[in-house]
Design the sequence.
C-alpha cells in the first residue's frame, strides 16, 4: 500500500515516488515533520517542512479514503450486492468524488419520487422510454412516474455528473441578493458590498467568499451558484438524447427535471463546499504565515524589564520582571501625575531596569509619551497585547500566579513577550492572538491542525534550552508532548540541571525513539559544546572525527574557522550520511546555538500624531504592521485605529500576496491617502515610499 500511496501522492504534489515513500515510512515509524526535514535529508532528497506536510496531508486523505471504502464494502455486502466489477472499480478508485459517484446508485437514501414509481411497477416503462423508439405512450400519470425514474438515473450517472461539474468549473456564477427586512440592520452594513453581487466563482478571492458565507449564515443575503444552464443541458442532451420523437421528448422532459431538481442542486452544494474549502485553505495559510512571523519575533533577551498595561481610569498596571521573566513586584501608576512620575523613576533606578514594555491597547500612546519624558528612560518598546487577556484568565496563568489577579498576569505577559515572544506566546491558543481573518468561519479542525503545526515548526526551528524552558515550550519539541514535557520539568526540579543531552534518557518514559526525535532541538550548556548546537547526537562521532583529523578538540574546531575551512566533506560521506547533513553540520559549527530570530529594535511613532483627527492626507508616518490579510496589511500609526494598506497600494508593481512586501511587526513608513473619520477608517499606501 505504501508504494501505491507514494505513486498517487507523488503525482499530486510533484515529488518523486522514492522520496514520498521514504517520508511515508518515516511518518509510520513515528518521526515528526521537523525531525524528518532537519535530520533525514538523505532519505527525502532534502524536502522541506512544507513539502513533507503536504505529503502528510495527502497521506491522511488516502487513509480516510481507504476507511471509507471498507464502509462501502460492508454496506454493499449487507445489501447482498456481490458484483465483482463494482468491487473492482471501488478498489481501483482513489478519488473521493469519483468513489461517491460510483457508490451513489447503491447508497441508502430517503424514499424518492423515483422509488415510489418503481414500487408502482413503472421501471420497465422507464427503461423502454430511455430506448427512445417510437411507441404508444401510456397515460400521463404513468409517464410522470417513468420520468421521475429517468430523472434520478440521469442525476446519479457518473458521466452526467462529471459533465455538469465541468460546466460549473468553467461557467459557474455566484450571485447574492439582500434579504429584505434584514439588510437594513446596522450589523448588516458590514456586508453591504454583497447585497447585490455577481462574480464568476473561479475569480472570487478567499476573503470575499468567507465574508459572503458569513453574511449568508447571519441571514443578511441569499447566495446562488449556477453554471450556464443552457450549456449544461446541451451537454446532457448530447449524452441522453439520440432520437426525435415523442418518446425522446419524454426523456428530454425528464432530463430537464433531473437537472433542475436533482443534479444542479447536488453539484451546486458540492461546488459551494469546494470553494469554501479553497477559501478556508487560503485564510488558514495567511493565518499560519502571520503566526509564524509573530512567533519568530526577535527577543530582547535576558534583560530586567518594567512592563506596563496602560489604562486611563484604572491606571497602568505596572510590573517588574528579572532577566528570567520572574515577577519581582507590581504596582498601579496613573498617568500625568507628578507622584507617579517619581514612582516610575524610582522603580527604574531601584531595579536597574534595562527596558520598558508598554502594551499597545487603550492609553498606549499617552503612556509611552509619559515614559519617554522621564529623566532616566531606558529603551521603550510597544508590545502587542493580543491574547494577553486570554492568557491572564487561563489555567496556565493561574498555575503560574495563583495569588495575583488577571491585571497583574496580563502585565507580566506583556513584559515576557518582550523578553522572549516565543516562550510566552506558546501559552496562548493561537486563534486568540489576533493575526488572521475569519478564523471563526473556517474549518476549525483544519485551522487547529495548521496552527499547531506552525507552532511546532517554529519552536523546533529556534530550539529551546532544556534547563530553562517551561513545560509549555517543551510540549512542542519534536517527539515530546505534554506528558513528557512535564516529566522533564519534574526531573529537572528533583535532580538539578541536565549536564548533557544523554541525561535526557534518565527521564522516566523518555526512551531511545523519543530521544532520537527530540535531542537535536534541545540545547544545554555543558561539557560537550555540541550539546548547545543543532548537531544531532547521532552525528557527534562525525564531528569528533573531523576534529581529530585536524589535530584539535571539538571546541577548538568550533572556534577556528581556518581549521573548518580545511575540512573536505567528501571524506566523511557514508551510506547513511551524505553531503546535505554534513553541510548542515558545518553551518552549525560556524554559529553553534545561534538564535535565528535576530534582534529587536526600538520604535518611535510620530510625536505630533495621537488621534485620527491629527491625520491629514499626504502625511508620511512611521508605523508597525499589525496584521496581514489576503487583501492587504493593517498598520498601526499610533492613533488607536489601524490603517489599511490595500494590496493595490503595497508596491509600485503588481502584488499577489501582501507577504511578498511586508512581514508582521515590520517597521514601515506609510503615506496617508484617505481618512473616513465618521467610520474610523484610514487608508494608507506603501507605494513610492522607501522602507
Sequence:
Amino acid at each position: 500500500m505504501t508504494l501505491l500511496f507514494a505513486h498517487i501522492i507523488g503525482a499530486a504534489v510533484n515529488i518523486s515516488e522514492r522520496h514520498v515513500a521514504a517520508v511515508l515510512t518515516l511518518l509510520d515509524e513515528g518521526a515528526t515533520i521537523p525531525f524528518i526535514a532537519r535530520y533525514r535529508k538523505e532519505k527525502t532528497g532534502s524536502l522541506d517542512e512544507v513539502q513533507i506536510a503536504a505529503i502528510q496531508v495527502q497521506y491522511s486523505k488516502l487513509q480516510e479514503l481507504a476507511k471509507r471504502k471498507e464502509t462501502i464494502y460492508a454496506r454493499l455486502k449487507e445489501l447482498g450486492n456481490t458484483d465483482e466489477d463494482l468491487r473492482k472499480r471501488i478498489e481501483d478508485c482513489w478519488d473521493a468524488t469519483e468513489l461517491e459517484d460510483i457508490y451513489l446508485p447503491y447508497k441508502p437514501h430517503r424514499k424518492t419520487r423515483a422509488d415510489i414509481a418503481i414500487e408502482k411497477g413503472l421501471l420497465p416503462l422507464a427503461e423502454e422510454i430511455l430506448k427512445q423508439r417510437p411507441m404508444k405512450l401510456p397515460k400521463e400519470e404513468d409517464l410522470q412516474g417513468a420520468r421521475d425514474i429517468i430523472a434520478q438515473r440521469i442525476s446519479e450517472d457518473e458521466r452526467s455528473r462529471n459533465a455538469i461539474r465541468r460546466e460549473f468549473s468553467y461557467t459557474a456564477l455566484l450571485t447574492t441578493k439582500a434579504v429584505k427586512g434584514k439588510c437594513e440592520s446596522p450589523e448588516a452594513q458590514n456586508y453591504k458590498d454583497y447585497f447585490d453581487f455577481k462574480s464568476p466563482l473561479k475569480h472570487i478571492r478567499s476573503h470575499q467568499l468567507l465574508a459572503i458565507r458569513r453574511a449568508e449564515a447571519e441571514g443578511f443575503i441569499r447566495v446562488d451558484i449556477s453554471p450556464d444552464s443552457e450549456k449544461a443541458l446541451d451537454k446532457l442532451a448530447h449524452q441522453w438524447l439520440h432520437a426525435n420523437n415523442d418518446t425522446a421528448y419524454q426523456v428530454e422532459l425528464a432530463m430537464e427535471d433531473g437537472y433542475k431538481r436533482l443534479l444542479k442542486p447536488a453539484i451546486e452544494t458540492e461546488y459551494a463546499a469546494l470553494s469554501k474549502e479553497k477559501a478556508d485553505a487560503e485564510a488558514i495559510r495567511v493565518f499560519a504565515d502571520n503566526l509564524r512571523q509573530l512567533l519568530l519575533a526577535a527577543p530582547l533577551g535576558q534583560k530586567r524589564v518594567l512592563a506596563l498595561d496602560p489604562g486611563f481610569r484604572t491606571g497602568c498596571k505596572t510590573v517588574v520582571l528579572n532577566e528570567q521573566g520572574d515577577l519581582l513586584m507590581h504596582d498601579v501608576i496613573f498617568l500625568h501625575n507628578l507622584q507617579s512620575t517619581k514612582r516610575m523613576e524610582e522603580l527604574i533606578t531601584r531595579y536597574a531596569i534595562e527596558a520598558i514594555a508598554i502594551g499597545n491597547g487603550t492609553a498606549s500612546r499617552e503612556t509611552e509619551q509619559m515614559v519617554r519624558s522621564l529623566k532616566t528612560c531606558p529603551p521603550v518598546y510597544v508590545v502587542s497585547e493580543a491574547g494577553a487577556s486570554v492568557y491572564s484568565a487561563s489555567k496556565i496563568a493561574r498555575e503560574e500566579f495563583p495569588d495575583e489577579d488577571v491585571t497583574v498576569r496580563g502585565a507580566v505577559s506583556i513584559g515576557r513577550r518582550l523578553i522572549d515572544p516565543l516562550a510566552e506566546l506558546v501559552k496562548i491558543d493561537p486563534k486568540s492572538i489576533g493575526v488572521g481573518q475569519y478564523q471563526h468561519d473556517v474549518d476549525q479542525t483544519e485551522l487547529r491542525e495548521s496552527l499547531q503545526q506552525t507552532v511546532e515548526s517554529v519552536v523546533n526551528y529556534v530550539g529551546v534550552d532544556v534547563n530553562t524552558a517551561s513545560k509549555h515550550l517543551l510540549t512542542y519539541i519534536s517527539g515530546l508532548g505534554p506528558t513528557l514535557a512535564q516529566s522533564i520539568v519534574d526531573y529537572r526540579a528533583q535532580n538539578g540541571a541536565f549536564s548533557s543531552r544523554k541525561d535526557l534518557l534518565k527521564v522516566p518514559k523518555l526512551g531511545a525513539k523519543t530521544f532520537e526525535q527530540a535531542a537535536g532541538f534541545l540545547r544545554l550548556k555543558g561539557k560537550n559544546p555540541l550539546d548547545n548546537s543543532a548537531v544531532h547526537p547521532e552525528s557527534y562521532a562525525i564531528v569528533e572525527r573531523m576534529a581529530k583529523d585536524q589535530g584539535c578538540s571539538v571546541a577548538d574546531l568550533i572556534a577556528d574557522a581556518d581549521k573548518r575551512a580545511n575540512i573536505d566533506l567528501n571524506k566523511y560521506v557514508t551510506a547513511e550520511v551524505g553531503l546535505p547533513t554534513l553541510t548542515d553540520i558545518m553551518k552549525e559549527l560556524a554559529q553553534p546555538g545561534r538564535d535565528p530570530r535576530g534582534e529587536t529594535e526600538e520604535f518611535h511613532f510620530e510625536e505630533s500624531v495621537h488621534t485620527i483627527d491629527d491625520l491629514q492626507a499626504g502625511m508620511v508616518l512611521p508605523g508597525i504592521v499589525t496584521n496581514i490579510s489576503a487583501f492587504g496589511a493593517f498598520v498601526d500609526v499610533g492613533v488607536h485605529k489601524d490603517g489599511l494598506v490595500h494590496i493595490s497600494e503595497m508596491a509600485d508593481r503588481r502584488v499577489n500576496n501582501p507577504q511578498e512586501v511586508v512581514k508582521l511587526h515590520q517597521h514601515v513608513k506609510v503615506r496617508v491617502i484617505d481618512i473616513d473619520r465618521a467610520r474610523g477608517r484610514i487608508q494608507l499606501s506603501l507605494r513610492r515610499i522607501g522602507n
Observations:
- The chain has a mean pLDDT of 93.
